[in-house]
Amino acid sequence: MSISAADVKKLRDMTGAGMMDCKKALSEADGDFDAAVELLRKKGQKVSEKRADREANQGLILSRISDDKSKAALLEINCETDFVARNDDFQEDAELFLNAAFDNDIDNKEELLELELDGLTVTKRLEEMVGKIGEKIEINNVVLVKSEGTLIDYIHPGNQLGVLVEFDGDLTNEDIGKDVAMQVAAMKPLSVTRDGVDSTLVEKELEIAKDQLLNEGKPEHIAEQAAKGKLRRFYEERVLLEQKFVKDNGVSVKEYLEQNDAPLVKSFHRLQLGEDS
After folding, report:
1. Which residues form the Translation elongation factor EFTs/EF1B dimerisation domain (predicted)?
2. Per-residue pLDDT tens for 135-167?
3. Which of 33, 157, 189, 195 is deepest in the core (most CB within 10 A)?
């Protein structure tokens, strides 16, 4: 049957797919718009599978936080190129997924992917985006935090890095919270306190430090004591409350908070494009 230009344009407006793809889908569906949309979705799925081995390390990190600072969400959505990440449609869809996670109290990507929005699961919406844009697109991380204390979010310019910090109490000066969130962004701590550091990693650091000292000719007992000193420096570099405060190296983060009568940090989350959370 003959497919009019108006019908092709209508399908393109409905789906965002290319003109030729729309014309072909309408022809295969004998002019049935619902069937044509389904064909385009299937095409999107095929594109997604076809590009499954491609690297998707560009994209956006987005955050949303409640007015009372008691609930916050972080979302990482990935694509292949920065050009797509700057696309208005891509950004609107990313905001839609972030809001869906926030509004539905979703704290993992698997649950978000199964969520239905306006009749389509998030997985299907991603497949449609792939079919429309032609790049691999995936949601890599979803974080949701609820707190009886205070939550502060920070998104680094460019939306490639985002942080949520939970304070153990009422934080009256939000600037202090932003300072700590930027500390987490810049200095990549492993945990809030020493107790949060993986014991396997601690043992490995001790072993490395001890072996280095033994290789330098230090006696066993001296090497063991000196290794513990190196471990202290490791904690100062990788534990948030023990890190030197980036805006004043004369104090630790813990001392900075105490000097300003601010509650200590209870937890934090840091997402960066292309990194495991």
Report:
1. 72-275
2. 899 999 999 999 999 999 999 999 999 999 999
3. 189
